[in-house]
Amino acid sequence: MSYAMDDLTGPRFDKLRRAFFRFRQSKLSLLGGMLVALVLFFAIFGTALAPYPDHIAGGLDTSNRFVAPSWEHPFGTNELGQDVLSLVMAGTTVSVLAGFGVVLIGSVIGTIIGAIAGFAGGWLDEVLMRLTDLTLTIPGLILAMAIAAALGPGFGNMVIAISLSWWPGYARLVRGEVLAAREEVYVTAARAIGASPARILFRHILPNTVSPIIVKMSLDMGFAILTVAGLGFIGIGVRPPTPEWGTLLAISRSYMPEYWWTAMAPGMAMFVAVFGFNLLGDGLRDVLDPKARR
Amino acid sequence: MLLFILRRLLMLIPVIIGLTVIMFAIARLLPGDPVGLAAGPNATQAEIAALAVEFGLDQPIWVQYWTYVTGLMQGDLGTSLLTRRPVAADIAAYLPATLELVFAAMAFAVLVGIPLGLVTAVWRNKWPDYLSQVAAIGAISMPRFFLGLLLQLCFAMWLMWLPLGGRLPIIVIPPPRFTGFMTIDSLIAGDWDTFTLSLRHLALPAIAMSLSPLATIMRMMRASTIEVMGQDYVMTARALGLSPRLIITKYVARNAISATLTVIGLYFGWLLGGTVLVETVFDWPGLGLYATKAIVSQDMMPVIGVALVIGLLFVLANLIIDVLYGVINPKVRYS
Amino acid sequence: MKTSTPLNLNRRSLLALAGVGLASTVFPRGVFAQNSAVLVIASNQDIPNFDPHTATGYSASFFMRNVYDPLVRVGGNPPEAVPGIAALWEASADGKTYTFTLNPDAKFHSGAEVTAEDVVYSFERALRLAKGNSWMIRDIVVPGGVTAVDAGTVQFDLAVPFAPFLQVMPWIFIVEKAVVEANLGTDDGQTWLMTNTAASGPFTVLRAEPGTLFQLGRAPTAWQANGGNLGGVIWQITREAATQRLLLERGEAQIAVDLTSEDMDALENSPGVVRILEPEYRTFSIKMNTEAGPCADINMRKAISYATNYQAIQDAAGYANLMTGPLPDGIMGHKPDLDVYRMDLEKAKEHLAKTATPEGGIKLRMVHVSGLEQQRRWALIMLDSLKALNIELEIMPMNWPDMVAACKSPETFPDLFPVYQTANYGDPDNIAFAAYHSSRNGGWQNAVYKNPAVDALIEAGRAEVDPAKRMEIYAQFQEAVVADAPDIFGVLEKRRLAMRDTVKGYSFTPVASNAIEAFGLSL
User: Fold this and answer.
1) Helices B287-296 & B300-328, crossing angle to 10 degrees?
2) Are B82 and B299 contacting, i.e. CB atoms less than 8 angstroms apart?
3) Between the CA atoms of C247, C248, C250 and C254, what dihedral angle is there, to the nearest 10 degrees?
4) CB-based contact, B16 to chain A, within 8 Å
5) Residue C452 exposed, middle or buried by CB count within 10 Å (0-12, 13-18, 19+)
6) Which of B225-229, C267-271, C283-287, C445-449 has the lowest mean pLDDT?
7) Rounded to an integer, what distance in angstroms lies between the CA atom of residue A97 and that of residue C98?
8) Which residues of B touch C240 (CB under 8 A)?
9) Which of A30, A236, B15, C212 is the most exposed place for a label (fewest CB within 10 A)?
C-alpha cells in the first residue's frame, strides 16, 4: 500500500519513464526540446557570450553603421554600428524572461481563481466565471496594450499588463479539473478523515491538476513571447537600451529593403523560439495528456 | 431555435454591462492625465478645467458611468478627446476596414486550409503529410508582423507584384459607401477596376493574418477526416461500391464545416483584436490603429468603445456559429 | 440535403452577385478626373485640426498655406516676403506702424470679397485664442492694434517695434468673418473650424479621411496669380519613411517629406527622382534642466557638454552639420567663430570635479519622443558619452503630449530633453525668443531656462531696427548663451525632400519647407 518513494522502479516512476519513452519517439518533440534548450541556453548565457557585450549596454560604434553580414558581424550592424547578433542574443533573455513571467503570473492568478471557483461552487463560482468570461471577451492585445501604456514603459509593467489578460485560460482549465476531481474517491476519503477544505484543495486536488497546467504553460510560452514582441513592435514595452526582439523589428522597418539584416535576425530568432516552444508543447501534450491527442 | 437565439441575445445585456464596468474601472484607475494631454501644450488651468467639464470628467465615477450607459442605449459611445468626434462615428468609419481584413483572412484560411487538410489526411504518414505538420506548427509560430514585413519585402518591394499598403491606390476615389467594404461596395457600384484593386491591396495583409487559422483548420480537417474515414459507415459505403469521391464529399463535408466553424469561433476574437500589428505594417486604416493611437494618448472613450464593439461582435459571432452548428448537425441540442 | 444547403446557397448567391456586377454599366471611375494633374505628397503627419488660429505642426502649415491665405507669404532663398492677400505694404520709419493694401481680387471660397474687416477679425481672434502661431505676435500686435482704414487697407499699430514683423505675417491666416461668426458655438468657432473651412486660398477640401489622406482641389474661386497646373493635391499619410520612399520611387507619390538620411542615400541614383538636400534653420539640441536637479549646476552642464560624443551625433545624423552655437548657420546674425564645446574628456572631468558629485555616480533622466528614430539614437549616444563621466542615463520614451506636459515646471522637467526647433521665419529672433526667453518657460520650446541678461539682449534684438546694431546684439546673445551652456548644441539637419522630376516650378525656401506650397507647382 505504501510506495517506496525512492525506489526508481516503483509504479509512479514507471509512468514517467513510459511518458519519456513516448516523448523520445516523436522526432518533432525532440526537435522542439532541442530548440527550447538552445533558446534557454541563450536566455541564460546570451548576454555573457555575446561577441560585443558593450553594444548591449548601449555602446555604439558609429563608424561602422549598417555593415552587411560578415565574419566580424554575422548578422551585420545596425544604425548605430551595434552588432545585431549580440543584440538579438541579449534580446533572448529579455523576451524569454518576459514570456516566462507572463505565463507564470498568469497561471498563478488563474489557478487560484479557478481552484476557488471550482471548489467553492455556488455563487462564488458564478461570479468568478462571469469575470473570467468577460476578461476573455475583451480583446487580449488591446487590454494588454491599454494597461501597459498607462503603467508606462518598462519591463515589469509590460509583464504585468500581459499577465492580466492571460489568466482566464488557466482559470477555466483549473476550474474544470477541480470540478472533476471533486468527485473523486480520494477526495471523499480525505473529507471523511476530516481534512479541511484548504488541505484537500492544496494537498490532494491541485497536485493532480499539475500536468494539464504544465502542458498549457508550455503551449502558451510561444504565444506569450509573441505577445511581448507584439507590444514591443507597437512601441509599448521596454525602454532603450534594453534589446527586445519586437522593438528591434520595429526599428528595422525603416531600413527595408536595403538593410534587411536588421530585421531578419530578430524575426528569425522570434520564430525559432516560438516554434521550439510550440513543438515542445505539442509533444508534452501528447505525452502527458493523451486524452487530448487527436 | 428562435427561443434559443432570443435567450442568447438577452444574455448580451449582462455582457455589455460587465464589459463596460471592467473597461471603466481600468480606464479610471490607471494613472495619467488625458485631459491635460488633450487640451494641448498651451492650455491654461482654466481651459483644462473647462475641457474636463465639457467631457464630464469632473463628475464622480459612478455618475460618469451612468451617463455612459444611458448614452450607450442611444448608440452614443462618448466622444474622443483626441479627435473631438463621437466615438461611434470614428468606429463606424474604421470598423469595416478591420472587418474586411478579418473576413478576407478567414476566407483565405478556409479556402486553402480545407483542401490542404483533406489532402494530408488522404496521404497521411507519407512525407507531404509530415512536412505539412511541421509547416502547420511553423505557421502558428510565425509572428504576424514579421510575416507581414517579409511579405511586404518580398512581394511589394523586391518583386513589386503587389502594392505596399493602404486599401486602395491613393488617387482612386473609393466607391460610394454601403457597407464600408471596398470589395463589396465596388461590386455594388459595378466598378470592376476598383474591385480588382481592392483585392490586390487586401491580399498581403489578409495572408499575413490568415496563416495561423489556416494551419489550425488544416490540422482539424485532417484529424476529423481521418476519423471519419475510419468509421463503419464509410466502410459500408465503400463496400456497397460508392465512389470514394462521393463518400468524401458527403461525409467529410459535414466535418469540414464543423471544423471550420470551430476554428472561426476560436479565431474570430483573436483576429479582430489582433489586427493592429498587421495594420501597422500595411498602413491599413482600421480599428487597431485607431485603438492604438487612443491608448497611447490615454484617451479612454475610444478604447472602451472599441473593446465593447469587438467584445459584442465576438459574442454575436459565437452565437451565429452555435446556431450554424445546430443547422449542420441536428443532433446538437440547444441547451 | 440539409447539410449541403448552406453551401449551395452561398455559392448561388455569390454567382448572382458577380453576375450583377459584370452586367451592369461600368461608370468611369478609377483615376481622378479627366486631365487635371494631382500631386500626391507622402507624409507621416496627420492633419487633425483645420483651424488656422489654433493648429500647429508642419502638416497643419501645409493645410493652411494651401487652403488659406495670409497677408504676406514667404518665398525665395534667403527668404523674403512676397504678396499674399496684401498686394502692397509699407512700414513707418520707427517700425511701429505697418500699412497693408489688400489685393482687390482677393475672394473667399464663398465668393465674398476679402475685406479689411476680415483681416482685423482674424488677428483679433488669433490673439484672443492665444494658441497655434499666435505666440509670434503676442505683445507685439495687441488687441485694438489692428484697424481697417477702409475696405481695402489695414493698419497695424505695434506695441513695440518688431524687426521681423513681415517674417511672421505668413503664419497668421485670414478667415472669413461672416462664416466664422455664423458658427461660433461656445468656443469661438474652434469646434466648427476644426473640420470646416472659411478660407480664401487656392485650394479647397475635397476629401478628408483623418489618419489616411486629405485631398485638396483647385478652388473655383481661386484668384491668386501665377499658379501651376495642379487640379488637386493629396496629402497621403504614410507612417513609414521607407514606404514613402518606395511610393516615390514607383511614382505613386510625387513628393516625400519625411525621408531619413538612409533613404536619401538609397535614392541617390534613382531614375526620375530629384533630391533636395538643403541646409535649413532647423536645430536639434538637447535641453538641460537649468533650474532643478544636477544640471542646475553650470559646471555639470559644461562637463556634459564636453563629454558628448559629437562625432557620433554627426555620424548618426547623416546629412547634417554640427551646430556652432545656439543659432543655425546661415541665419542673419549668426556669429561664425563662437567657441563651442567639442568632445574633450579632460575638460569634462575638470568641470565635473567642481560639481557636488565630482566622481559622478549619479543617474540622469532623458526623455525622447517614442517612435522618433533620430531622438532614440541621440539618447543612446548620450548614454554612451556619459559613461565616461560615470554618470548613468535613464532613457524614457514618451509620447509628445506627455513630454510637453512635463515641461510645465522645473520639478517635472527631466534632466535632458531633446527638441527640434524650426525657425518659422528666417530671423534670429525666432529661435532666440522661442528657445531662450524666459517668457516661454513652461512650454516645450524653453521649459526652464531663464537668464535676465539674455532676456534683455533678446528683447533689445527684436526691437532694434538698425541691422548693424542688431548683429551686434545677437553676437552678444550667442556668446552669453554658449557661456551658460543651457543646451547641448547638436546638429543642423539638412532638409531632406525628394520629388519626382515631373514636378515643375519648385524652389526651395529654408522656412517650413516640408509644408509644401502647392499652388506654384505643376506636373
Assistant:
1) 150
2) yes
3) 110
4) no
5) exposed
6) B225-229
7) 67
8) 283
9) A30
C-alpha cell at B223: 484529424
Per residue in C260-293, is it b (16+ CB within 10 Å) or e — as a string? bbbbbebbeeeeebebbeebbbbbbbbbbbbbeb
C230-237 vs C37-43, strand pairing mode:
parallel
- Grid coordinates representing C69 are 491665405
Q: What is the 3-state secondary structure (H, E, C) of chain B?
A: CHHHHHHHHHCHHHHHHHHHHHHHHHHHHCCCCHHHHHHCCCCCHHHHHHHHHHCCCCCCHHHHHHHHHHHHHCCCCCECCCCCCEHHHHHHHHHHHHHHHHHHHHHHHHHHHHHHHHHHHHCCCCHHHHHHHHHHHHHHHCCHHHHHHHHHHHHHHHCCCCCCCCCCCCCECCCCCCCCCHHHHHHHCCCHHHHHHHHHHHHHHHHHHHHHHHHHHHHHHHHHHHHHHCCHHHHHHHHCCCCHHHHHHHHHHHHHHHHHHHHHHHHHHHHHHHHHHHHHHHCCCCHHHHHHHHHHCCCHHHHHHHHHHHHHHHHHHHHHHHHHHHHHCCCCCCC
Strand pairing category for C230-237 and C213-218: antiparallel
Interface test with A, best of C259, C313, C315, C416 (most A CBs within 10 A): C315
Residue A73 has pLDDT above 90, yes or no: no
pLDDT-wise least confident of A183-187, B134-138, B156-160, C241-245:
A183-187
- Kindly state the helix (H) or strand (E) to which residue C367 belongs, with its residue range: strand C363-369
User: Three cell numbers at C168?
Assistant: 511672421
Q: Which residue has the cell 526652464?
A: C448
Residue of B nearest to C133 (CA): B42
Average pLDDT over residues B197-204: 92
Give C-chain residues touching B160 at CB under 8 angstroms.
Answer: 250
Amino acid making up residue B114: I
Phi, psi of C215 (to 5 degrees): -110, 125
Q: Is A46 helix (H, G, I), strand (E, B) or coil?
A: helix
Q: Where does residue C21 rank: exposed (0-12), middle (13-18), buried (19+ CB within 10 A)? A: middle
How many residues would you count in chain C?
A: 523
B:C CB pairs within 8 Å: 108
Look up residue C277 and give its three cell numbers. Answer: 538636400
Partners of residue A55 in chain C, C-beta under 8 Å:
none
Cα separation, C48 vs C41, in Å, equals 17
Strand C273-278 versus strand C495-500 pairing type = antiparallel
In this model, does residue A293 exceed pLDDT 50? no
* Closest residue in C to B81 (Cα–Cα): C48
As a whole number of angstroms, the distance between CA B183 and CA B168 comes to 10
Strands C213-218 and C203-209: antiparallel
For the ranges A132-146, C97-111, C268-282, C508-522, the lowest mean pLDDT is seen at A132-146
Please tell me what DSSP assigns to residue A200: I
